[in-house]
Write a structure and sequence with these properties.
By secondary structure, the protein is α+β, with helices and mostly antiparallel strands. It has two domains: 84 residues, Carboxypeptidase-like, regulatory domain (Immunoglobulin-like), CATH 2.60.40.1120; 121 residues, TolA/TonB C-terminal domain. It is built from three helices and 16 strands. The strands form five sheets. It has a four-stranded antiparallel beta sheet with strand order 3-2-5-6, with no helix packed on it. It has a four-stranded mixed beta sheet with strand order 8-16-11-12, covered by helices on one side. It is elongated. 23% of the residues are buried.
Length: 230
């Protein structure tokens, strides 16, 4: 009896140590306006291990994962309309519960257009492309949509010289759907093609992105490919 009793005590001690080695990970997910994001998918992956856990945020944007073995974790948060959020090296321990405040940014918009012209000659090398608190629930995104698109004109001189290339532009789509602050991302491309691309894209119009019903600015990348038919 004494031996069995000692064994039970030892097992309880081991279980107690195992439980003490578990930690918790919690947090809240919000959008850029500060509103909470419900039903965002949380993925927690143990660094250097095979453990992976999942959760969905509640209507309040909160999530809670427990028990988790002590260690470091990578946390990713995904929700349609938003850019994937990833955080590395999150320390989970029994002594200090981990809590995250996560802000989801809007997903980036991309557009691609081919500008094709007939031509002859060798092409240049293409470029590389007190009262109860009220929680404001958000996370609703209506994605932007291109409504008017002007095709850039192929520069006649480039056409005659057989010059091809790709122009990658970055811009902000304003709240009224106008491209703003057009910026050239790549440099190894003929300047005449860049000018033509900007002239055309500047005239494009979008249906603006709506976040919780209100228009917001969003970053876009636009790739214009100038190529000649052979």
């Amino acid at each position: 009896m004494k031996t069995a009793s000692r064994l039970s005590v030892a097992l309880l001690a081991v279980c107690g140590l195992a439980q003490a080695a578990d930690g918790t990970l919690s947090g809240v997910v919000r959008d850029a306006s500060g509103a909470t994001v419900p039903r965002a998918r949380i993925t927690v992956t143990q660094t250097g291990g095979s453990l992976k856990e999942f959760a969905l945020t509640k209507e309040t944007g909160d999530f809670f994962l427990s028990p988790l073995p002590e260690g470091r974790y990578a946390v990713t948060v995904a929700k349609e309309g938003f850019a994937l959020n990833r955080q590395e090296g999150i320390q989970v321990s029994a002594a200090s519960p981990a809590r995250l405040e996560i802000v989801l940014n809007l997903g980036q918009v991309t557009e691609t257009m081919d500008v094709v012209a007939s031509g002859v000659g060798s092409a240049a090398s293409p470029a590389a492309g007190g009262t109860p608190a009220r929680i404001r629930v958000g996370g609703h995104v209506q994605a932007t949509k291109l409504t008017a698109q002007v095709r850039p004109a192929y520069p006649p001189a480039c056409k005659a010289e057989g010059v091809e290339g790709t122009v990658l532009l970055r811009a902000a789509i304003s709240k009224d759907g106008t491209p703003l602050n057009l910026e050239v991302v790549n440099r190894l491309v003929d300047a005449r093609l860049v000018e033509a691309a900007i002239d055309g894209v500047r005239q494009w119009r979008y249906q603006p992105t709506l976040l919780n019903g209100a228009p917001v600015e969003v970053v876009t990348e636009i790739q214009v490919n100038f190529r000649l038919e052979r």
